[in-house]
Specification:
The complex is a heterodimer of chains A (about 775) and B (about 50). With about 775 residues, chain A is of the alpha+beta class. Chain A has 28 helices and 26 strands. A 7-stranded mixed sheet of chain A has the order 14-26-25-24-15-22-23, sandwiched between helices. In chain A, strands 16-21-20-19-18-17 form a 6-stranded antiparallel sheet, sandwiched between helices. Chain A is globular. The radius of gyration of chain B is 20 Å and the shape is elongated. The chains are: A alpha+beta (about 775), B mainly alpha (about 50). The interface between A and B is medium-sized, with 33 and 25 residues.
């Protein structure tokens, strides 16, 4: 095994050729790109990067020209998205590099969002010079149109933080003033009055500033003639404050004050909302990759654009000239390059890999597919799911009942304090807290594992699913190629043939290359990639080719040896040859995902009936089903057939979850009670999968089921508690058995119970968790 | 007990002062990025080359 490149960690295939003096020693590097980057970093005196980084750098890529940037960036300030970042040291390096570029007046990289803000003097430098400087140290930067929304959400989150601070700090301080009244009866009347006034002074801003969202919400609900969750909260807060303020102003000893309860309540409620908003912002940031392709210059439909290899396509369009392959993984999750020739459709945001292309723009800017997906997911992230609806639904009946009960209690007893006690004690904030906290925790927990929940409604279905239907290709299998068999044809041992093949394929992005990943490598040079044909290279003086039969035959002109083993169903064969003749043949197959068996087993252990329905050959499907222990299967099924199959199963009132790759299963995914799409990206989100597994691992599917179950259990517990508590407290308060002070204490305790219960872990480690290791994030080294 | 008449109003004033200080910090962007400053300490390049 050759040494690893000091910069990027890839194997060094030609030792001694690329070197740089780094951290006081000569280091081996893998290619000219890494050498240039490493020398630039060393020359700028930024070697500390190599000491502080926690991950090797991304290998440098061919990058496009920058002239267009300057035309677009008229000003002297820009926001950049920094790409190819692996760890915090990368961001430090980028920031230092920008700061040291002559003419830069300000450069700041935000570590949380991986965005850079730069300002420069237009007389001395330009945006393209800055981006070039970033590229010279091995990263890339895209100008980024800061959406107005971003600015807005930042101002909003600052204000929310201020509200939270005022409420929390106020609560602490007011509690100090309330404390003597609780413990010491011997306080002089003047001192007690002063404590109340102090409490009033601090509670006033808490109520007017911190609680403004509740009053705004209540006003909205009033305008819509319905009573939601904000109305009782606002009413309770206002009533408690007015009563306390009146008691304070009208004189000593005439009534109790509840300033501490008001502030505590506000703090708890705002805290829950703050957590919810933070989770939502994190979810929105997951969309950033979709926005990175934003072109520097506005394009119009019909325009012809030239795209160099390595460059991102700026808009949706059609190829007018050239043949190349394109990486559409950003949008489709499909990692294998797609070949594009004249007349083929292109999607904005995908990367042109091999040859220059000319394209005619069909949709640009906000009309592109990528933009519409971003909008869709954004909307989903901000939508109010059924859990909150359920709580709202209960509150819709509870809230008017509470208000009516408070009014009745007042009329019947003639004591306004009983009305306040009723409002405070039954304030349905436990109800308001429960669902959103659990739900955002669930979607954040899933997102952290690379699972996008686009409709939270699905959690309820997943929890009670009775049947699961799997698609085969790309779902249970990887949709990637793996080596099934190596057939040495002449002169070479199997190991030698594999070593040569792996060395030739080591730098290729073709799916066939993955079949050879991880094998020993030897030195090869003069690599030429021929799209859709194969790879040519030179090893110990010989010209070698790997790829399609006709591509190899073109090198030596000999016919295929007749005595080859027959090709099995579902396998693909590629060849290795040199100038003298055939060397080896390799059979590649679509590999079963390693976690598939464990997932099927787990689903069956949960009492879920598992189906396998595929368009593939019936005998292949049957073989796979028996291997995984799937009781029901059907092969050779058309998309319409799949839909029929699903409808027939649904007739019995069963809840059915469909798990597909999101590409050709769209109607089936839409018809199922809940759907999970593998592979992430555009097609899945567009076709309304409820859950998108972006990391493309079946282990994540199991987590979705697990998380749904835990989350729904917590919500049910919370709601049951809140309802039981209200049912018990309302009559007691209405009967005058609970005074306003006790009411506030009991209410606070109840909210705390719900809040703490909601914080319980959502993904409990299960005994068999060890058997499915979470797949590491895809390594870009050989792919 | 007399000290209360001084200390309680003083504490109210202090609360507003601290609230104002927090607001200044917030508007100054100190809470916008809670990760970066921690890394600044590690990545000090003041040392001689």
């Amino acid at each position: 095994m050759p040494a690893a490149c000091f910069h990027c960690g890839l194997p060094v295939l030609e030792p001694g050729r690329y070197r740089a003096d780094l951290l006081g020693a000569v280091r081996e590097l893998c290619c000219a790109g890494c050498e240039a980057v490493a020398r630039t970093i060393a020359a700028a005196g930024l070697e500390a990067y190599y000491e502080t980084r926690s991950s090797p750098a991304a290998p440098p890529a061919d990058l496009s020209s920058l002239e267009e940037l300057d035309a677009a960036a008229a000003g002297s300030e820009a926001a950049l998205i920094v790409d190819r970042v692996r760890c915090a040291a990368c961001l430090w390096l980028v920031e230092r590099t920008l700061q040291r570029t002559p003419g830069v007046t300000r450069a700041h990289v935000n570590y949380a969002t991986q965005r850079a803000q730069v300002a420069w003097d237009p007389a001395t430098t330009s945006l393209s010079a800055l981006v070039r400087a970033v590229r010279e140290v091995g990263y890339d930067a895209y100008p980024y149109e800061p959406r107005r929304q971003d600015e807005l959400s930042r101002r909003e989150s600052r204000r929310a933080l201020m509200r939270l601070f005022v409420a929390g700090f106020g609560a602490m301080q007011v509690m100090m003033y309330a404390f003597p009244a609780y413990v010491d009866e011997g306080l002089s009347a003047e001192a007690a009055a002063m404590m109340r006034w102090a409490g009033l002074f601090i509670t006033a801003p808490v109520l007017l500033f911190s609680c403004a969202p509740f009053f705004a919400g209540a006003r909205l609900e009033l305008a819509q003639r319905r009573i939601g969750l904000d109305t009782p909260i606002a009413l309770g807060l206002a009533a408690a404050f007015c009563a306390s303020a009146w008691a304070t102003v009208s004189g000593a000893g005439s009534g109790e004050v509840y300033f501490d309860s008001i502030c505590m309540l506000a703090f708890l409620l705002l805290g829950a909302r703050h957590l919810e908003a933070a989770a939502r912002r994190r979810a929105a940031r997951a969309l950033d990759p979709l926005l990175r392709w934003l072109p520097a210059r506005p394009l119009k439909a019909g325009e012809i654009v030239h795209v160099a290899p390595g460059e991102r396509l700026p808009a949706d369009g059609v190829v007018t000239e050239g043949i190349s392959s394109v990486d559409e993984s950003l949008l489709t999750g499909e990692s294998r390059p797609v070949r594009k020739g004249s007349g083929d459709e292109l999607i904005a945001g995908s990367v042109n890999l091999e040859q220059p292309l000319a394209m005619r723009v069909t949709r640009a800017g906000a009309d592109t597919r990528a933009a519409s997906i971003a909008r869709l997911v954004e909307r989903a992230a901000a939508s109010r799911p059924w859990l909150v609806d359920a709580a709202d639904h209960v509150a819709r009946y509870l809230a008017p009942a509470v208000v009516a009960a408070a009014g009745l209690a007042w009329a019947w007893s003639g004591d306004p304090w009983i009305a306040v006690a009723v409002l405070v004690v039954t304030c349905p904030c436990a109800l308001a807290l429960a669902a959103p906290v659990v739900l955002t925790r669930a979607s954040a927990a899933l997102l952290a594992r690379g699972v996008l929940l686009t409709r939270a409604r699905a959690l309820g279905v997943l929890e009670r699913a009775s049947e699961v239907i799997f698609d085969k290709t790309g779902t249970l299998t990887q949709g990637d190629l793996a080596l099934a068999r190596a057939l040495p044809l002449a002169r070479l041992s199997e190991a030698e043939a594999l070593e040569l093949a792996a060395s030739l394929e080591a730098r290729s992005r073709h799916p066939a290359a993955r079949a050879f990943a991880g094998l020993p490598l030897s030195a090869v040079s003069d690599l030429i990639h021929v799209p859709a044909e194969g790879i040519e290279g030179r090893s110990s003086g010989r010209r070698l080719r790997i790829g399609a039969a006709r591509f190899c035959a073109a090198l030596h002109g000999k016919p295929l040896p007749g005595a080859l083993a027959p090709l099995e169903a579902g396998h693909t064969r590629i060849y290795l040859c040199d100038e003298e003749g055939w060397l080896a043949a390799f059979d590649l197959e679509d590999r079963l995902r390693p976690e598939a068996a464990a997932l099927v087993e787990d689903l069956r252990a949960r009492g879920i009936f598992v189906h396998l329905v595929s368009g593939d050959e019936p005998q292949v499907v049957a073989a796979l089903a028996s291997r995984l222990g799937i009781p029901a299967f059907a092969g050779g099924v058309t998309p319409e057939g799949k839909l029929d199959y699903l409808r027939r199963r649904q007739r019995g009132g069963r809840r059915i979850v469909m798990i597909g790759d999101g590409l050709n299963d769209a109607p089936v995914l839409a018809q199922a009670d809940a759907s999970i799409a593998m592979g992430g990206g555009a097609a899945a989100a567009q076709h309304h999968a409820d859950v998108v597994v972006m990391r493309n691992s079946l282990a994540d599917v199991r987590r979705v089921f697990e998380t749904a179950q835990r989350a729904m259990r917590l919500v049910r517990q919370d709601l049951a508690w809140a309802l039981a508590y209200n049912a018990a407290a309302l009559p007691l308060a209405a009967a005058g058995a609970i005074g306003p002070l006790e009411a506030a204490l009991v209410m606070g305790a109840s909210s705390l119970v719900v809040l703490l219960n909601s914080q319980r872990p959502l993904a409990e480690p299960l005994p068999w968790k060890a058997s499915i290791s979470s797949s590491p994030s895809p390594s870009p080294s050989y792919s | 007990m007399e000290s209360l008449y001084l200390l309680v109003p003083l504490s109210v004033a202090l609360v507003f002062l601290i609230g104002w200080a927090f607001w200044r910090a917030l508007e100054g962007g100190q809470f916008d990025d809670l990760e970066r400053p921690a890394h600044d300490v590690l990545a000090d390049d003041d040392r001689p080359r």
